[in-house]
Design goal:
Alpha-Beta Plaits; eight-stranded mixed β-sheet; six-stranded antiparallel β-sheet; 16 helices; 18 strands
Length: about 575
């Protein structure tokens, strides 16, 4: 056997042994790592479902809180009527449509002794009133499930396992709107946790779920096994169902901490399969590298080959050190090394061409990036855009002082019926584009338009002390513009504008289409100022009036009734005050 063949045999045996060792090692280490990563992913997704379920409870609790701090329910319980179902509160505030809109199946009121005073139940699917389930009434009368709540901060949320189905509920003590005095009872709202509700939660979290009652006689085998493992110390259990699906199991306890509902979250095993692919790619890479290494060893048997290889290496290194892609290596001869030299030269040509293309692409990419940033600045405030570039986390800020404006084109819906769609959109675009320019000139922030309504805010994302004055000035400019627009276009459009100042929460929502939005009671009251306003006048709240009364001529309009607020004093802005000459 020649030395050449012996070298080939030695290289082949070495590469084969290396591949076997690497395959065994990587299979043991990497697959375990990917399995651990897969388990963590399943746990996180199962936790996402649990968080979405808790959010359902929190949303229900917020609804109960709104009702529990209101004079109407407080006075309703205080009446102690023998026929509460005939009460004016029940007739006007607890209509079927109201309860359906709240998306609750049961609403119940308890007196100060913990006895049920009035209850109402509806079938949300059929949108019909139904008798209050006897199982719910039994639990309410036993007093073992609903705690006595007596303070503003007291609340109770949880899960009830009724024969009719699992139900999430929230309860709070009832107080008057001013939150003064003591509670005279309690309000409980419940919503059946049907398969449709759980399916909706799964859709919001983009998860595939299956759920069973823990007392279901048809509980599948895998649910039975995992239910014996789940407890407070082990809240989530993962288990592969097959090569393509891995599942996370979560136990939802009822209000007295007894196991109630078992949920399974199914996840595709993409991570596991990717781990297998990664191992195969690594082995293939090692195999190719080993073969190339063996070929190179064969090339260096003779001194002539070694010398040419060294020379080739020097020339290539010169190209590297000088970064001159126009240089070429020596290609004398007609053997493999010469061919390699030619390939290197061809590669240098390709690299040089690619480098030039890359420079052009980078220039084009820079232009496109500038366009993207400009587009993003048209959607979000510049300060928010800069924060998103630095950190992709959720943006949510609290502002102690800001002024919110709502403007609505009065009667625009009826007016729109008389115009072709293209002309209608062009008209709205002209008006709102002018409003946008005014907003930009005054340093305010447009939030959004909804149909023929326009919303803006002053004092954020960059706080400013004159936010109220600037927003009121903006309102007068909007009226002035619309009056001029009507004259020029022979139209009779009108605006109704409402303004309120106070604390707000502002942030960015969405992952596909960003929007910078506001939340809080200030936004709600500003909207009420607009909806209860006067055509072609600017109506402001007391908090805004106190900030602008020295700069604008205002008149007191009087009290208006606002849901959740009661009677609120309002003011009308007439004009900017003229400065008195020195």
């Amino acid at each position: 056997m020649t030395l050449y063949r012996k070298t080939i045999l030695a290289l082949g045996v070495t590469i084969f042994a290396l591949i076997l060792i690497l395959y065994g090692t990587l299979s043991s280490i990497l697959l375990k790592s990917y399995a651990d990563l897969e388990t963590q992913d399943v746990i996180k997704n199962t936790e996402r479902f649990r968080d979405a379920y808790l959010e359902e409870l929190l949303t229900l609790d917020r609804t109960v809180s709104d009702w529990a701090q209101w004079d109407r329910p407080f006075n309703f319980i205080a009446e102690k009527s023998k026929k509460p179902e005939d009460s004016e509160f029940v007739v006007t505030e607890l209509m079927d449509e109201t309860v359906i809109n709240l998306k609750i199946n049961i609403i119940a009121f308890f007196d100060s002794q913990g006895r049920i005073y009035f209850a109402k139940a509806l079938d949300l699917d059929k949108e019909l009133k139904i008798p209050t389930p006897e199982s719910f009434m039994k639990l309410a009368n036993e007093g073992n499930f609903f705690r006595r709540l007596i303070t503003l901060e007291d609340n109770q949320t949880g899960l009830l396992m009724l024969p009719e189905g699992p139900m999430i509920f929230a309860s709070r003590a009832v107080f008057p709107t001013n939150r003064e005095g003591s509670s005279n009872g309690m309000i409980v709202m419940g919503r059946f946790l049907s398969s449709d509700v759980i399916h909706n939660i799964a859709q919001r979290t983009h998860l595939n779920t299956t759920d069973y009652r823990i007392d279901d006689p048809k509980l599948p085998e895998d649910f039975i096994i995992q239910s014996k493992i789940l407890n407070e110390k082990v809240p989530i259990v993962t288990q592969p169902l097959n090569d393509n699906i891995i599942s996370g199991y979560l136990m939802l306890n009822d209000v007295v901490s007894n196991p109630a509902l078992l949920v399974r979250v199914d996840i595709d095993r993409d991570i596991f399969h990717q781990g297998k692919k990664s191992i195969n790619y690594i082995i293939l890479t090692v195999l190719v590298s080993g073969l190339i290494f063996g070929v190179l060893i064969l090339f260096i048997i003779g001194r002539i080959v070694l010398f040419r290889v060294r020379r080739l290496g020097v020339e290539v290194n010169d190209v590297k050190m000088t970064a001159d892609l126009s240089r070429r290596v020596t290609t004398g001869g007609s053997d493999e090394l010469s061919l390699l030299s030619s390939e290197i030269n061809e590669m240098l040509v390709n690299i040089e061409t690619a480098h030039e293309k890359e420079k052009q692409m980078m220039a084009q990419l820079k232009k496109e990036q500038e366009k993207s940033e400009e587009l993003l600045l048209n959607i979000l405030p510049s300060a928010i855009v800069n924060r998103l570039k630095i950190n992709n986390e959720t943006i949510a800020d609290h502002f102690a002082e800001a002024t919110v404006l709502f403007a609505d084109i009065v009667g625009f819906t009826q007016f729109a019926d008389t115009m072709p769609p293209a002309e209608l959109v062009a008209l709205l675009n002209t008006i709102f584009s002018s409003f946008d320019q005014l907003t930009h000139d005054l340093g305010l922030e447009k939030i959004k338009t909804i149909g023929d309504s326009y919303m803006l805010v002053g004092g954020l994302p960059e706080p400013r002390p004159d936010h109220a004055q600037t927003v009121v000035r903006m309102a007068l400019e909007m009226l002035f513009f619309l009056e001029k627009f009507n004259r020029e276009n022979n139209l009779n459009l009108a605006l109704r504008i409402g303004i309120h100042s106070g604390p707000v929460v502002a942030g960015v929502i969405g992952t596909k289409k960003f929007i910078y939005d506001l939340w809080g009671d200030t936004v709600n009251l500003a909207s009420r100022m607009e909806s209860h306003g006067i055509i072609n006048r600017v109506q402001i709240s007391p908090s805004t009036y106190e900030k602008v009364k020295d700069d604008f001529e205002c008149e007191q309009r009087g009290l208006i009734s606002v849901k959740g607020k009661g009677e609120v004093m309002t003011y009308i802005v007439n004009s900017i005050k003229r400065k008195i000459a020195a």
